[in-house]
Structure to design on (487 residues):
């Protein structure tokens, strides 16, 4: 669900009018982007491509596009719930690992593995930022991506370069293409990306690899890891029920599939039904499942979490537990953290500078006449939509909302960008809002509840304002939220 807030000098009388927009998937995204964003994908994907050696920009762009085409060829047309696809057999993953000779390499990685319905991407992002600020070389694998598939692979906090992406992509793709056959077909889209992540992190010799589960846990492609350092389960809810089950207990059982014998595991407070199953699964593996509680905001020394929304304090608490355990188990006991004690400076810096596109993200458009402000979030479940609505309403409920934004220019932003951001004054008034449902099948039953949640906090009208959105997304680079300097 994408929210964008618009300011006009003389706000009209607000009337809530939902405009559902059917969206088709493009370029193999695991969730669909709005058509307006899809229209600019090609220009964004090639904006940083270097000149090909002895060639031209067109040849470099052509090579990158051929890579995307090869990746897209791995998308199956069958639904996830359709078990007839031979390439979906879980045991095939181990065949792929042998072909790529990754078994030993994976066993050497010091992995943090996180599953969950909501918040697992944010938890992984916080964890990566914390450990990077502790001085470790980090690898982060998340999904989905918003603009460019390279967003899924981060090294030391930055998405992998195109040069390295192309190198590792074709290294894996060519070997799999040569060795696969009718009995062992090419891996499907997400499985290939997970294998690619393992190759990248092993080759780049990261100190820690943080893996976000794609779907479920037990049969997820990331679950080939036999001995992670620590596992985490973020908030659970109803999602992908055609695969994971119709009850919270069944869903929790699938998520708990990432638990490994005697490997420490943490979760956040869960509904009783889900918690009972998690504890039962953990007990069978001789795991003392521990509950990580929300981070106390007072521990941040007056700073704010880099990711917006009250729910992020829950994800931050889980990330702290995972990182402190990782440090202790890998022989780096630089922290003896408890829920009431002070946070080490690297933890505070990591939590207050982490960056993740499309999660309760605020992006100002300085170039628009009314200084348009976009509020972006990729909520994909009823619970996530409620959390998103609460965040959005909190940010926009009064005339001074912009002065209270948790939008802090990153250290790596150029001075011009910082100045532009500062020019977004506190005198804005929200008058219009639009939602883009980022789902392949619209469920109109979700709209009334969401709209009522928004209306009770403010006055909204749903209306299209797409050109500015296209421009802002093109000008703000992934991951860093840094405005690109025009040349």
């Amino acid at each position: 669900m994408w929210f964008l807030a618009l300011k006009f000098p003389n706000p009209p009388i607000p009337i809530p009018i939902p405009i559902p927009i059917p969206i088709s998937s493009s370029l193999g995204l695991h969730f669909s982007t709005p058509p307006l964003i899809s229209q600019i994908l090609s220009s964004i994907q090639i904006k940083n491509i270097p000149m090909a050696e002895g060639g031209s920009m067109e040849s470099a762009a052509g090579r990158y596009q051929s890579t995307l085409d090869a990746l897209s060829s791995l998308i199956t047309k069958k639904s996830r719930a359709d078990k007839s696809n031979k390439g979906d057999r879980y045991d095939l993953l181990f065949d792929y690992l042998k072909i790529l000779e990754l078994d030993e390499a994976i066993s050497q990685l010091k992995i943090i593995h996180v599953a969950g319905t909501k918040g697992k991407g944010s938890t992984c992002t916080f964890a990566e930022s914390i450990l990077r600020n502790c001085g470790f070389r980090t690898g982060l694998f998340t999904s989905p991506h918003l603009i460019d598939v390279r967003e899924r692979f981060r090294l030391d906090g930055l998405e992998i370069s195109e040069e390295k992406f192309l190198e590792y992509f074709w290294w894996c793709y060519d070997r799999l293409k040569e060795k696969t056959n009718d009995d062992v077909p090419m891996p499907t889209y997400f499985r290939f990306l997970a294998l690619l992540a393992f190759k990248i992190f092993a080759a780049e010799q990261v100190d820690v690899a943080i893996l976000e589960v794609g779907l479920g846990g037990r049969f997820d492609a990331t679950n080939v890891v036999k001995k992670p350092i620590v596992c985490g389960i973020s908030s659970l809810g109803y999602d992908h029920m055609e695969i994971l089950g119709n009850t919270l207990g069944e869903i929790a059982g699938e998520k708990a599939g990432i638990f490994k014998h005697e490997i420490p595991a943490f979760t956040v407070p869960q509904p009783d039904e889900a918690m009972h199953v998690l504890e039962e699964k953990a007990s069978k593996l001789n795991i003392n499942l521990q509950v990580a509680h929300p981070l106390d905001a007072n521990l941040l020394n007056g700073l704010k979490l880099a990711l917006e929304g009250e729910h992020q304090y829950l994800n931050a608490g889980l990330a702290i537990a995972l990182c402190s355990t990782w440090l202790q188990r890998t022989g780096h006991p630089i922290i003896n953290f408890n829920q009431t004690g002070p946070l080490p400076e690297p933890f505070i810096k990591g939590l207050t500078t982490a960056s993740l596109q499309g999660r309760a993200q605020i992006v100002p458009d300085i170039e628009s006449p009314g200084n348009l402000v976009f509020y972006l979030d990729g909520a994909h479940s009823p619970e996530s939509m409620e959390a998103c609505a609460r965040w959005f309403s909190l940010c926009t409920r009064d005339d001074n909302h912009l002065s209270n934004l948790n939008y802090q220019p990153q250290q790596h932003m150029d001075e011009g960008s910082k100045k532009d951001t500062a020019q977004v004054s506190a005198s804005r008034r929200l008058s219009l809002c639009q939602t883009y449902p980022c789902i392949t099948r619209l469920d109109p039953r979700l709209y009334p509840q969401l709209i009522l949640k928004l209306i009770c906090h403010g006055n909204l009208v749903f209306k299209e304002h797409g050109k500015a959105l296209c421009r802002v997304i093109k000008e703000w680079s992934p991951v860093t939220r840094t405005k690109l300097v025009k040349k």
Remarks:
- Residues 2-23+358-475 form one domain.
- The longest helix spans residues 162-179.
- Residues 1-56, 399-432, 459-465, 477-487 have pLDDT under 50 and may be disordered.
- The chain has two domains: 2-23+358-475, 93-353.
